[in-house]
Structure formats: structure tokens, C-alpha cells
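protien #1 (seq + structre)
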Amino acid sequence: MSTPFKIVKEGYDKLAVDYKISILESSIDQLAKKLEIYEKEVSVTQESYQKLKAKHTMLVSDLASKERAADEIARLALREANVVIEQANEHANMIVNEALHTAKTLLKELVRIANEGKESKTQLLEKLHALQTIIEGLEFPMIDPFKDLE
């Protein structure tokens, strides 16, 4: 981007050089202002980056903490569930054992009642047989009911 200047008697054309220098100075000023703006933007961007980085680190740490807490809660819930299941099994076993004991007691009572029933049946049959024998052995006198009426 070189600009050829006219060569005059004492060197280059002073007006053209001065004009070019003023344009370059203006350009340098504009570039310096742009550089200053860009440096401020970079500074603001770096600050934002640092804040976001710190927030990200905090969020990652918080997430890890919450994950550990969730894992602990899940572990405790599983342990509690196992305790509840174990207690339920114990209660179920107690209920089953009580039911078996009651069933055994009822069966024993039923066998006793059945045996008593058999004994009572045998005794009743014997008494019935004895009564039948007595009834068969009864002799009634033969009385003519119309004999006295004549």
C-alpha cells in the first residue's frame, strides 16, 4: 500500500507527504481507538469467562454433591425397604405358624370329637340293641276288648 510521491527538487512533494501523514495519523488514531475498544471487550469477555468458569465449577461441584446425596438417599431407601421386607416376612412367618398351630389344634379337637362320636354311637347301638331285646321280649296278655261289653 505504498504511495509513490512526486519527486521534487528538494525531495518529495511536501504537501503530498503531509497529506499522507495526516491520513496515516488519522488512521492510527482510529486504529488506536478500535484497539482500545477491543481491549476493553477482551477484558469484559475475560471477566465474563472467569465468572462463567467459576459458576460452572460451582455448578459441577453442586451437581456432584447432589448426586452423592441422591446416591445416599437411594442407598438408605434400599436399606429401609430391605428392613421392611424382612419384617413383613417375619410377620408372615408368624401368621403362618399361628395358622398351622391353630389348624393342628382344630384337627386334634376334630379327631377327639370324632372318636367321642364313635364311642357314643357304639354305646347308643348297644343300648338300642338292649332296648330292642327288651321290647321283643315283652309279652302282652291277649285281652278281648269286647268281652266285657256283652
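ok now protien #2
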Amino acid sequence: MKRKLRRTLFSAAVVLAIGVAAFFAFRSCGKPFLHAGRETVYSPVTVSDISPTGQLRVMSVYKEVVVGSTRTDYTLFGPVYRKIYAVYPAQLNLGYDFTGVKYEVVSVVGDSTFVTLPPISILNEDGQYVDETRMRVPIQSGEWNYVEMNALRARANNEMLISSLAENCMQEASVQGKAVVEKLLTALGCRNIVFR
């Protein structure tokens, strides 16, 4: 009788342990770490910066965005701790997009040249700022699958945009852009350039 009771209790304990383990299997809790250091590079605008699609790049912001995460996976054999830190080189291109402009950008009245520029735009294609091909992983423990790495890249991409906007990069690009356009028009012989 006692042996049967022990066997039943042991079986119930095993079933309960398997049920708890199955409930927590693949369940993760993560702690994100974000950091970005900015380096803005101003360079003279060359002909190559004016694309055939009607865009004029006036400023590029370069950063290395560090994204980290820690996770705890609960398995049948207990918790498994993982961590990763990835460094993504990133570049944000800012400038003017003239493709949708339906008004006259430059008009000459008397000896004055009036310029109406569109607002500064982000010129990166498809909203991608980080370069995944040059990504480095200085710290990693455990295995990280494609979905998790893709989530890290998306967070780095988002952090690049948020931090650049918070640092008033659009305003800096606007000032830089007007200086570039004024220089180009002056080289073409325009005088008394007025931005409106």
C-alpha cells in the first residue's frame, strides 16, 4: 500500500514538474540596453551628392549604436541565462527631396533671387540606417536565433533615428542646407539670395 502511494505521489510530482517546465519553456524575460555615440560629418557637397531622383544630400550623421539584451530561458534542466551586445555602424542621410515639389523653388525678381526649399528629409532608402553587414558582437553567451537578432537590429535602427532627432540634427541640416544652396547659386552668378 505504501509502495503504491509512493509511486502515485512520484508520478504526480513528475507530471507536475513536466507541466511547469512546459509552461515556462521558451518563455523569456529580456532587459534591453541602448547606447549611441554621435559623430556628425560635414563635407563639401559634390556632384555625386545630387541624385538623379531629385534629392540633394547636405549632411550625414555617423554613429555606432550599441544594443544589448539579456534573457533567461526556463527549461526542464533549470534556467539558462544568455546575454548579447551588438555594435551596429549607422548612417543617417539628411537633405532635400525635390521629387514631390510642385512650386517654383528658385525665382528671380529684379536683381534678387528668391529660394523656397522643401523641409529637410531623411534620404535613407526604406528607413534603414544601420549597416547589418558590418555589425560586430563583442559579447555573446548562448545561442541567439534569427528573430532575436532581427529584433536587435530593429531596435538599433530605431535608436539611431530617435537619438538623431533628439540631437536637433534636422535643424542643423537645415542650416547646412541653406548654406550649400546659397553657395551653389552664388557659383551660378545669382545675387541677393533670399530664403523664404
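The radius of gyration is 28 Å.
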